[in-house]
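User: Let's play a game. I give you a shape written as tokens, and you guess the letters that built it. Ready? Here's round one.
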């Protein structure tokens, strides 16, 4: 039937996507950057379809001290299998464009999205194993500390800032997936219009967007005894006075006191325009992080916060008044605290 044939623009798009996947063989898929004061130029781990590259030897030396397993290309089955999978999908895209059957496009879409989900899970599992399964006889051991890098985005690991993002090959995969999603939606809608008006099932969009585009940019819980204050470098010991900044790029800065938070903001290492949200810990209840503009603030010397800020945040006035009876002080606004 004519309705089962793909339109010329879809066929051309599929062939171009197949050719684009061939380029993935020659460029890195992913990179992990490590920044620290002792490495001002930073360290970079590059992940190609068939090997690891970048500053692997230096990173392995650092891993040895903290008990992480060293990284070697031959230890990963993925580097043997992945080139064949990429080649298969490159061929499948071209074949789908040449054969031009609608059902073949749907099969390609399901397989490609499924591969994307499984690949991201496998990458997370790899990071988890290397970050949590540590040598108990390592030179440096911090009880309860794990060194799992972020899947996407930024994470502080001791004095190292780890930043994980797709590289050229990864962005090609994402771009090809986005084009495949667009073509599949257009073909689906066109086919359904012949029978009746019908929108694309929400589940298809949900699967693709979750697999390809999800990225957490919200606040991250403070872990006492594990997380360090970004300003004073002290280990966060009392979560009741904690604070956090989340930038528009998803980078997270944690603090043990409003004193450190305010001084960090005044220092200007992060421009105010780059800050997405600022959070303070709810002094009462479950100590969840609340957005600073929604917080009620009590300043009292008797609170004795870790760095002398002596400010407690509350999500409701009743809780504030109860604490204010115990610790005599004044309610203040966030803008008042920011004044010089």
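Assistant: Ready! My guess for every position:
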């Amino acid at each position: 039937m004519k309705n089962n044939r793909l339109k010329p623009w879809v066929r051309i798009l599929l062939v171009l996507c197949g050719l684009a996947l061939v380029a993935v063989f020659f460029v890195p898929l992913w990179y992990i950057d490590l920044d620290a004061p002792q490495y001002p130029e930073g360290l970079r781990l590059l992940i190609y379809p068939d090997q690891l590259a970048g500053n692997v030897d230096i990173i392995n030396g650092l891993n040895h001290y903290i008990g992480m397993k060293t990284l070697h290309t031959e230890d990963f089955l993925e580097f043997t299998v992945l080139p064949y999978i990429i080649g298969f999908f490159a061929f499948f895209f071209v074949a789908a464009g040449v054969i031009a059957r609608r059902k073949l496009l749907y099969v390609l879409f399901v397989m490609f999205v499924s591969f994307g989900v499984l690949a991201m899970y496998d990458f997370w599992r790899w990071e988890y194993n290397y970050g949590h399964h540590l040598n108990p006889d390592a030179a440096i051991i911090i009880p309860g500390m794990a060194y799992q890098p972020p899947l996407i985005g930024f994470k502080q690991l001791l004095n190292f800032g780890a930043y994980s993002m797709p590289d050229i090959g990864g962005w090609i995969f994402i771009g090809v997936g986005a084009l495949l999603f667009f073509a599949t939606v257009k073909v689906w809608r066109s086919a359904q219009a012949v029978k009746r008006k019908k929108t694309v099932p929400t589940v298809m969009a949900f699967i693709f967007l979750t697999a390809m585009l999800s990225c957490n940019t919200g606040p991250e819980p403070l872990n006492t005894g594990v997380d360090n204050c970004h300003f004073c470098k002290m280990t966060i010991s009392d979560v009741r006075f904690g604070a956090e900044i989340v930038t528009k790029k998803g980078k997270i800065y944690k603090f043990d006191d409003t004193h450190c938070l305010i001084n960090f903001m005044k220092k200007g290492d992060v421009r105010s325009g780059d800050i997405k949200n600022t959070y303070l810990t709810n002094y009462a209840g479950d100590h969840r992080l609340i957005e600073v503009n929604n917080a009620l603030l009590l300043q009292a010397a008797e609170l004795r916060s870790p760095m002398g800020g002596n400010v407690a945040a509350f999500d409701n006035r009743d809780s504030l008044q109860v604490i204010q009876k115990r610790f005599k002080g004044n309610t203040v606004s966030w803008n008042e605290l920011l004044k010089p």
